[in-house]
Design brief:
Helix content is 48%, strand content 0%. The termini are far apart.
Length: 52
């Protein structure tokens, strides 16, 4: 569940204002290939995302 406080902290009105996967991918914050390969989740579990 997302709270109004969370949305407010990021200047959002509704959940629809959150970026979609493609916008996050374009910004370099997500990688479909790494997600499918399991690399992204293992990087997060290791304490951070490695620079490419």
């Amino acid at each position: 569940m997302t709270t109004k406080t969370f949305l407010s902290q990021f200047g959002l009105e509704t959940l629809r204002d959150l970026p979609d996967f493609e916008a996050l991918e374009d910004a370099g914050l997500l990688s479909r290939e790494k997600l499918l390969a399991g690399d992204l989740l293992s990087g997060l579990a290791g304490g951070g995302i490695e620079d490419e």
